[in-house]
Structure prediction request, 138 residues.
Amino acid sequence: MPTPESEAFLAKKPTVPPNFDGVDYNDTPRLKAAQDAIIKEQWVKSMMNRLIRQELQKCYYREGVNHLEKCGKLRERYFETLPDAKVKGYLFQQQNYIPGQEDPVGQDQVSAGLSRPADGIMATVPAKIAKEKGDERL
Prediction:
């Protein structure tokens, strides 16, 4: 049976959700609290991934040649948590925040390797023009 959380633990626990929803940027303490909550959440995900990876390494070593059969659940869980394992910071979320939207604008394009959201749009425009003109080189 788990023990109740101590007062010291509850005092350090973030009181704001890990996003910028409803945060006034002129209110510095709330802004810093939101930034800290985002960083802590990313660190928790990173450490969770590290623990899963360590258990997977132990399983590989323990099972030997049967690791493909015996360690499949750990391997799948590790690959599910792998995209969130990197601590990315809060600046992208803070600068591209739109109220009421869960993910910042262009997050999928930035993770795909494009430098800014406009690059994804501009990269498709020449291809559409060339297709309309019948040019197959692009």
Q: What stands out?
A: Confidence is low (pLDDT under 50) at residues 114-124. The radius of gyration is 22 Å.
